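hiii so um. not sure if this is the right channel but i have a protein structure encoded as C-alpha cells and i wanna go backwards to a sequence. like what aa goes where. can anyone help
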C-alpha cells in the first residue's frame, strides 16, 4: 500500500515541477499576471506535493513506543500546512492584481506559448487530480486528497486565466488581472475546506456520520444489551473507534470475547480503515 501511495505522490510532485517551471517561464516572458499567478500557484502546489510525498511515506509507519496511535496525523498536518501555503498564494495574487488595476499597468504580451502552457496545464492537472482522488479514496488519505484538491483547483483557475487571455486579445486589457483575482478566490474556497478538515482531525473531532453508523451496526446484530461512550477519532487514514458494551453478567469470558470480536469484525467490514477497541461490562452493573 505504501509503495502505491508513494508512487502516486511522486508522479504528482514531478508534474508540479514541470508545470511550475513552464508557467513561470512563459508568465515572466509575456508579463501575464494571470499566468504568473498560475505559476506561483503551481509553485506552492510543488511544495505541497513534496510534503504529501513525505507525509504518505511516513504516515504508514506502525505505532511505536512514543506514538501509540501510529504516525497517521502526519498526513493531516501536511494538509494544514498546504492550506497555509495556498492562502499565502492568494495574498500575493490579489495584491499584485490590485496594484496593476489601480496603476493602469495592464499591458502584457499574449503569444502562442501563453495559450499552450495553460492548455497543457489543464490536461496534466485533470489526469493528476483523477489519479490522486482515486488513490485518496482507496487509502482514505487526507494528504493525497489535499493534493488532488490542489490539482483540481488548478483546472478551474487555468480555465479562468484562459478566458482572461482570450478577453485580452479582444482588447479587454483588465481581463488578465481580473482573472487572477478570480483564481485567488477559487484558491481561498479550496483552502477553507481543506484547512477545516485538517484542523478537525488534528483536534480529534469525530468524523460525521460514523457514530450513528456504528450504533446501527451493533443494534442490527442484536447481541448486546447496551452500547455507550462511543469515541471516534481520525489519524491519517485510520479511524479509531472505542466503546463500552453491556453483556449479561453470567456470560462466560470466552463467549464475551467472541461477541466483542464479532462486533469488531462487523464494524471493520463496514467502516474502512477502522481500528476498534471494546470494553465489556455486565448488563446488571450499576
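sure thing!! here u go:
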Amino acid at each position: 500500500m505504501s509503495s502505491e501511495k508513494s508512487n502516486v505522490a511522486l508522479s504528482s510532485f514531478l508534474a508540479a515541477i514541470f508545470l511550475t517551471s513552464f508557467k513561470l517561464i512563459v508568465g515572466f516572458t509575456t508579463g501575464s499576471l494571470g499566468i504568473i499567478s498560475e505559476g506561483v500557484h503551481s509553485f506552492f502546489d510543488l511544495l505541497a506535493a513534496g510534503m504529501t510525498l513525505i507525509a504518505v511515506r511516513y504516515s504508514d509507519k506502525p505505532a511505536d513506543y512514543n506514538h501509540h496511535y501510529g504516525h497517521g496525523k502526519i498526513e493531516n498536518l501536511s494538509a494544514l500546512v498546504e492550506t497555509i501555503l495556498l492562502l499565502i498564494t492568494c495574498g500575493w495574487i490579489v495584491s499584485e492584481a490590485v496594484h496593476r488595476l489601480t496603476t493602469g499597468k495592464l499591458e502584457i504580451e499574449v503569444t502562442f506559448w501563453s495559450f499552450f502552457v495553460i492548455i497543457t496545464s489543464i490536461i496534466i492537472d485533470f489526469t493528476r487530480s483523477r489519479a490522486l482522488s482515486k488513490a485518496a479514496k482507496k487509502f482514505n488519505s487526507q494528504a493525497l486528497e489535499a493534493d488532488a484538491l490542489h490539482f483540481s483547483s488548478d483546472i478551474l483557475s487555468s480555465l479562468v486565466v484562459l478566458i482572461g487571455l482570450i478577453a485580452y486579445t479582444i482588447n479587454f486589457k483588465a481581463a488578465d488581472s481580473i482573472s487572477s483575482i478570480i483564481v485567488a478566490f477559487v484558491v481561498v474556497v479550496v483552502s477553507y475546506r481543506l484547512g477545516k478538515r485538517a484542523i478537525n482531525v488534528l483536534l480529534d473531532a469525530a468524523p460525521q456520520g460514523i457514530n450513528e453508523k456504528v450504533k446501527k451496526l451493533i443494534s442490527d446484530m442484536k447481541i448486546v444489551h447496551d452500547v455507550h461512550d462511543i469515541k471516534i477519532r481520525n489519524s491519517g487514514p485510520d479511524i479509531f473507534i472505542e466503546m463500552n458494551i453491556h453483556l449479561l453478567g453470567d456470560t462466560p469470558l470466552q463467549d464475551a470475547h467472541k461477541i466483542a470480536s464479532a462486533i469488531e469484525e462487523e464494524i471493520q467490514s463496514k467502516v474502512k480503515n477502522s481500528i476498534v477497541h471494546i470494553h465489556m461490562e455486565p448488563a446488571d452493573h450499576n
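oh and The two ends are 46 Å apart (CA to CA).
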